[in-house]
Structures are given as C-alpha cells and as structure tokens.
Design brief:
about 325 residues, single chain, Rossmann fold, 15 strands, Alpha-Beta Plaits, elongated
Length: about 325
C-alpha cells in the first residue's frame, strides 16, 4: 500500500438538491483521500450521503461543486462536452463498481449477463470463469438471473465489477442480502483483492463491524459531512483502555482515588479511570479495602468502534 499516492482525491465535493434558495446539501464539501492499494471503508448511517458520493465518483451524478481526481486523472462528470466524456470512459475502463442494487437481465443466465459486460468492456469472455469462481457461483452460472436469491444477485454484480481486473473497485453495501456464511466469504474475498489483484477497494457500509474487519483506512460521513478520515488503527486510538470499578460506596471511593492522584470520574454505577499497571491496581484496591469500602467489581473496558462512531457523530444517530 502506497500511503503517499491517492487513487481518489476530491476537493469540496458537494451535491445539492432543490432550488437554490431552498436547496439541501446531501454531500457537503467532502475532501476524500483514498490511498493506493488499501481497502477504504466508507462508513456512515443510512442517508448520510455514501451512495451519492460514490455515484459522483463514477460520473452517474453531476456534482454541484467540487473537483474529482481518479487514478491521477481529473474526472469530468457526465453531461459535459465530448472530450470530457472520453476522459470519463478512460477512467471507468479501469474502475469496477457495484452501487446499490446490482443490475442484471432476469431472462438471461448469470453467464450470459457477464458476457454482455465483457462485450461492453471489450474484455475476453475467458475471464468469466475466473470471476465466477472468485464469487463462488460456478454451479449457478447457467441459471436464469430472475431465479437468483438477493445474495446471488449481489455475487453476480460483484463478478461483473471484477471483470477486466480493474485498478479501482467501488462497492456500495456489498454484503446486503447475504447470509452469515456469505458475508464471511465476501469479506475474505474483498480483503484478498489489494494483494492478489493489486486493486484499491472503496467499500461503503453502515455496519461498523464489517468495516472493522475489512478496511485499512476509514472515512466517516454524517449528514453529508466527512467527520473523520485516517487509518482504522488511528480510529481505534480514540478508544483508550480504562479500568472500571464498582464499590458499595462510590462517593467515598472517588475521594480516596483522587487523594492518590488518580483521575477518576463517575460513569453510571462505576468509577472509571485510565488503565494502570497491575501493581498500581492492586495497591489502589488494598487502600479501598483498608478504608472499609466493599469492592463489587473491577473490569477492563475499551470503547468499541460503535462507541467511537457515536462519539464522533452524536448520540442521536441511529444506524
């Protein structure tokens, strides 16, 4: 992964809907930086602006403001002059995507749907067997797409996106409709793409656990605004380990801990303070016991990714 080279850069990317005096910003001056060779998790609640942003990156929606650079090419949106359309097509030849519901012809088989994509992309049909194997669809390739489950349609859409070995892959909620085993398979497949096929993957989700298990980098969008963008490791640094202590007299215990210069604060039925080493913990517990305070529970606590997300976006956000 080359952290100094970005396959997607946006500056002030904005999308408004409605009349100028009453317009609503669905995407509000978003500056994306997606490093080459990474899996970039695009995280946010439903309606936060994830799909709209990804559609603008693909030229499916024209931005109201802002600049887009993809694969070192200034990207000109759909609807502009002929040279702009050529630029767009040149970028899209190196880009695979699965946005919202996968598109397919229900009266055709899975293989026939992929043959159409090969024709449109000018790709040899021999690649079909490879992508069908990648998404575990070899046995369903001759079944009509209208008979596929939602999960199989997702797999077919991903197979189509992988045709041509694109340098950049944009996936919008790719685990929708999959059962637990399918989610695990999809996750493992996505994780393998940067190393095995030298792809950069941008994957959106409102499921924090999915991004946590797949991504190297994360961008968090809320109400159209990008509120966090950095490595997932750095995001986890927001969660510092704490010790949580529950006693039969928290008020008195708090005073004693403060006397020993422990920065302690009440947290519901507990007292919370930064993690200290085992020796210091044992000493503090013994001091409380000497003071006649009963120790009901001592536990180590670390914020989950979901807790961090809620801290960043506000407790009112519903995933």
């Amino acid at each position: 992964m080359n952290r100094n080279h970005f396959v997607i850069r946006t500056k002030g990317l904005t999308k408004r809907y409605g009349k100028a005096d009453r317009s609503a910003k669905v995407v509000d001056h978003v500056d994306l930086s997606v490093p080459e060779g990474c899996i970039y998790g695009f995280l946010g609640p439903n309606g936060a602006g994830k799909s709209t942003t990804m559609k603008m990156l693909l030229g499916l929606i024209k931005p109201s403001e802002g600049e887009i650079t993809i694969l070192d090419t200034p990207f000109i949106s759909q609807g502009q002059h002929a040279s702009g359309e050529k630029t767009r097509l040149a970028v899209l030849k190196q880009t695979g995507s699965l946005i919202e519901s996968p598109s397919y012809y229900g009266h055709l088989t899975g293989r026939e749907n992929l043959e159409i994509i090969c024709t449109l992309k000018n790709i040899p049909t021999k690649e079909i067997a490879e992508v069908l194997s990648l998404v575990r669809m070899e046995k369903q390739m001759d079944k009509k797409a209208c008979h596929y489950s939602l999960g199989m349609k997702q797999r077919l859409g991903l197979a189509g996106a992988l045709l041509g070995h694109p340098r950049l892959l944009l996936l919008d909620e790719p685990t929708n409709g999959l059962d637990p085993a399918g989610i695990q398979e999809m996750r493992e497949l996505i994780r393998s793409l940067p190393e095995q096929y030298h792809m950069t993957v941008m994957v959106s989700s409102h499921l924090l656990s999915e991004i946590d298990q797949m991504a190297d980098y994360a961008g968090i969008i809320n109400k159209g605004q990008l509120i966090y963008q950095d490595s997932l490791l750095h995001l986890h640094e927001y969660s510092r380990r704490q010790l949580r202590l529950r006693t039969d007299n928290n008020t008195r215990a708090l005073c004693i801990l403060n006397e020993h210069r422990i920065d302690c604060s009440p947290d519901k039925d507990y007292l919370a303070f930064p993690e200290v080493n085992d020796g210091k913990t044992a000493f503090l517990i013994s001091e409380l016991v000497k003071a006649g305070i009963g120790i009901l529970r001592v536990e180590e606590y670390q914020k989950s990714l979901e807790d961090i997300f809620l801290d960043l976006t506000g407790k009112q956000v519903s995933l």
